[in-house]
């Protein structure tokens, strides 16, 4: 007829108008069978091609079996027509009438699949036009492959559930068409393998995302993007289980990447995994007819057992074999300066090197000094089995600069209710800082008036000493804090102490939890603590310099000069107390309580994803409560 494949599936026949009315009515009732058979046969011929996938092949095989029964009936009727003179159209209609219902439902299913393909093609054309790409003629829409076909079958079975014959037909087709999909599901949840050459399955894999990328992966792409759910091929009856299906295969892949043999399904004890009561189906929101079509719902038990077995195996691997909690304690010791006697010793040994510009600092020398300190038998870190994994690094940007870049990218410029506690503390600090500035100005004005009115004999000497006070404290400290910590903001090169940070070597699978993103957060907190410790050390050294200086220890006999000394001592002490109180807040009121919560949660954790979530929440909360995730609070915390 010269029609396309699409047109051959939509045949329509018409009765000649000249036919006798008595025959015309009967013929019009029988004739749809020809339309149904032609369209179904054309559909089977087209969708049996390999590119349509296993599910389509299974559906076509089931429909071909029904057509075979129909053709057997037609052959028998033809034999009756040729051998029996009493065979009439009325008898023919009597025999084919039950089959008409089945063929009509098959034809409706074919039309639904074709309509879904047409809708998908139109949507794809719109997207391709917007994106400026050429349409791929040979690409089969996912809506008519794999889970898409199962979705159409389930929808029709649900819609026609009031018709027992129709429901029985669709249950039969669903049970046959779902077998390849269930086989792919079984392979995924029991072996962590995707056997899906035609992209029919609900899980898709990005093979370009590898575990080796975890060392530089700041977005945790291996865990989040390596395996994802393909929504268009997700059948409705698997929606309640989609997360467990995804995670079961993910966990098995991690286990296999570690070189651990995966248990065969028959080796997994059902009672050991799910308990004596078996799988609880009370919360399973799946149509009972669908469960009957899908091997009586055994797939529900298989999913639950596979998920719990994979989760338990990976959880034991992380917490027991890989000693996750011990690793986190080790990281806490180094990055949070917990029991930091070793770090104080390291700063003393490396002080000369850390005063150099960061680009001139020898990382080899710093690493040697750190290793020397950590191997010292008197150090707390001496007994740490993971101390060899701590490495020294130099950052190329100041802490505040780095934080502001992260905040700008993350869109976290506005404070949230989670900052309420930090906001109140910041406002208190800001108020105190303003009072200090106002007090200094008033005292300075009073001192100037006293100096002029008292008729001092050595004004030059008093001015020089007063200048040394402001120069040694205000100028030195402010320049050190603001110019160095802000780093790139003021275009000043970083010194070693300002660029110093630590890194930690983490192997797979621990790198799923302690990822590069998590280590970056640890580094931000470490640099924050380091700056507080460094500024406290500078203020203490200032006191030492004052006690050694002849001019500071001996009275001068000049009231103006003695007033300057008093104000300098008071300013230094107030700055020192502020830094110490701020350090106490960060360590004792933020980091330590959050760490105790994390440890408590990890002890009672039941799934791997809970481990990831608890650890991520711990770091995010620490950053927020330390006022490192809000631009306004950063400007309050650091002198600019």
TrEMBL record:
<dbReference type="GO" id="GO:0000930">
    <property type="term" value="C:gamma-tubulin complex"/>
</dbReference>
<dbReference type="GO" id="GO:0051011">
    <property type="term" value="F:microtubule minus-end binding"/>
</dbReference>
<dbReference type="GO" id="GO:0007020">
    <property type="term" value="P:microtubule nucleation"/>
</dbReference>
<dbReference type="GO" id="GO:0044732">
    <property type="term" value="C:mitotic spindle pole body"/>
</dbReference>
<keyword id="KW-0963">Cytoplasm</keyword>
<feature type="domain" description="Gamma tubulin complex component protein N-terminal">
    <location>
        <begin position="9"/>
        <end position="320"/>
    </location>
</feature>
<comment type="similarity">
    <text>Belongs to the TUBGCP family.</text>
</comment>
<dbReference type="InterPro" id="IPR042241">
    <property type="entry name" value="GCP_C_sf"/>
</dbReference>
<dbReference type="GO" id="GO:0000922">
    <property type="term" value="C:spindle pole"/>
</dbReference>
<dbReference type="Pfam" id="PF04130">
    <property type="entry name" value="GCP_C_terminal"/>
</dbReference>
<dbReference type="InterPro" id="IPR041470">
    <property type="entry name" value="GCP_N"/>
</dbReference>
<dbReference type="InterPro" id="IPR040457">
    <property type="entry name" value="GCP_C"/>
</dbReference>
<dbReference type="GO" id="GO:0043015">
    <property type="term" value="F:gamma-tubulin binding"/>
</dbReference>
<dbReference type="Pfam" id="PF17681">
    <property type="entry name" value="GCP_N_terminal"/>
</dbReference>
<dbReference type="GO" id="GO:0051321">
    <property type="term" value="P:meiotic cell cycle"/>
</dbReference>
<keyword id="KW-0493">Microtubule</keyword>
<keyword id="KW-0206">Cytoskeleton</keyword>
<feature type="region of interest" description="Disordered">
    <location>
        <begin position="440"/>
        <end position="459"/>
    </location>
</feature>
<dbReference type="GO" id="GO:0051225">
    <property type="term" value="P:spindle assembly"/>
</dbReference>
<dbReference type="GO" id="GO:0000278">
    <property type="term" value="P:mitotic cell cycle"/>
</dbReference>
<feature type="domain" description="Gamma tubulin complex component C-terminal">
    <location>
        <begin position="324"/>
        <end position="634"/>
    </location>
</feature>
<dbReference type="InterPro" id="IPR007259">
    <property type="entry name" value="GCP"/>
</dbReference>
<dbReference type="GO" id="GO:0005874">
    <property type="term" value="C:microtubule"/>
</dbReference>
<protein>
    <recommendedName>
        <fullName>Spindle pole body component</fullName>
    </recommendedName>
</protein>
<dbReference type="GO" id="GO:0031122">
    <property type="term" value="P:cytoplasmic microtubule organization"/>
</dbReference>
């Amino acid at each position: 007829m010269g029609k396309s494949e699409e047109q051959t599936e939509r045949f329509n026949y018409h009765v000649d108008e000249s036919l006798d009315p008595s025959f015309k009515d009967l013929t019009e009732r029988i004739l749809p069978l020809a339309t149904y058979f032609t369209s179904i046969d054309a559909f089977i011929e087209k969708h049996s091609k390999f590119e349509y996938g296993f599910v389509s092949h299974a559906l076509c095989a089931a429909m071909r079996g029904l057509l075979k029964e129909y053709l057997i009936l037609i052959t028998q009727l033809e034999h009756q027509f040729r051998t029996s003179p009493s065979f009439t159209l009325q008898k023919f209609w009597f025999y084919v009438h039950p089959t008409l219902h089945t063929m009509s439902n098959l034809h409706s299913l074919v039309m639904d699949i074709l309509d879904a393909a047409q809708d998908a093609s139109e949507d794809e054309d719109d997207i391709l036009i917007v994106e400026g790409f050429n349409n791929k003629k040979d690409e089969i829409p996912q809506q008519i492959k794999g889970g898409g076909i199962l979705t159409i079958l389930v929808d029709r079975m649900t819609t026609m559930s009031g018709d027992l014959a129709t429901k029985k037909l669709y249950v039969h087709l669903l049970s046959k068409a779902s077998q390849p999909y269930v086989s792919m599901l079984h392979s995924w949840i029991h072996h962590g393998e995707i056997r899906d050459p035609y992209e029919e399955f609900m899980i898709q894999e990005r093979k370009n995302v590898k575990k080796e990328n975890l060392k530089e992966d700041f977005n945790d792409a291996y865990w989040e993007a390596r395996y994802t759910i393909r929504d268009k091929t997700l059948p409705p009856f698997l929606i309640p289980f989609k997360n467990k299906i995804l995670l079961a295969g993910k966990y098995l892949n991690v286990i296999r990447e570690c070189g651990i043999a995966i248990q065969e399904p028959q080796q997994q004890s059902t009672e050991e995994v799910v308990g004596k009561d078996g799988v609880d189906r009370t919360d399973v929101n799946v149509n009972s007819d669908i469960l009957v079509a899908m091997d009586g719902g055994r797939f529900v038990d298989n999913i639950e057992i596979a998920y719990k077995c994979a989760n338990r195996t990976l959880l034991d691997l992380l917490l027991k074999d890989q000693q996750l909690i011990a690793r986190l304690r080790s990281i806490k010791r180094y990055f949070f300066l917990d029991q930091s006697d070793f770090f104080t010793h390291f700063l003393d040994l490396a002080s000369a090197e850390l005063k150099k510009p960061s680009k001139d600092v020898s990382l080899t020398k710093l690493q040697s000094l750190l290793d020397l300190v950590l191997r010292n038998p008197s150090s707390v870190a001496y007994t740490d089995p993971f101390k060899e994994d701590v490495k020294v690094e130099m950052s190329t940007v100041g802490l505040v600069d780095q934080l502001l870049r992260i905040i700008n990218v993350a869109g976290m410029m506005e404070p949230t209710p989670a900052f309420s506690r930090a906001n109140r503390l910041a406002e208190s600090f800001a108020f105190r800082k303003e009072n200090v500035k106002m007090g200094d100005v008033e005292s300075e004005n009073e001192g100037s008036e006293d100096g002029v009115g008292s008729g001092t004999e050595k004004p030059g000497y008093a001015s020089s000493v007063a200048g040394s006070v402001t120069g040694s404290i205000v100028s030195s400290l402010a320049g050190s804090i603001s110019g160095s910590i802000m780093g790139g903001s003021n275009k000043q090169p970083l010194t070693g102490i300002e660029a110093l940070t630590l890194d930690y070597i983490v192997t797979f699978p621990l790198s799923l939890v302690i990822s590069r993103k998590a280590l970056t957060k640890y580094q931000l907190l470490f640099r924050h603590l380091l700056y507080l410790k460094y500024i406290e050390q500078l203020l203490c050294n200032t006191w030492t310099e004052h006690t050694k200086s002849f001019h500071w220890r001996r009275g001068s006999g000049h009231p103006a000069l003695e007033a300057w000394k008093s104000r300098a001592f008071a300013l230094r002490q107030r700055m020192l107390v502020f830094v110490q109180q701020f350090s106490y807040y960060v360590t004792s009121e933020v980091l330590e309580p959050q760490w105790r919560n994390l440890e408590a949660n990890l002890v009672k954790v039941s799934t791997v994803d809970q481990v990831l979530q608890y650890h991520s929440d711990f770091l995010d909360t620490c950053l927020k409560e330390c006022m490192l995730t809000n631009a306004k609070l950063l400007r309050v915390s650091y002198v600019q």
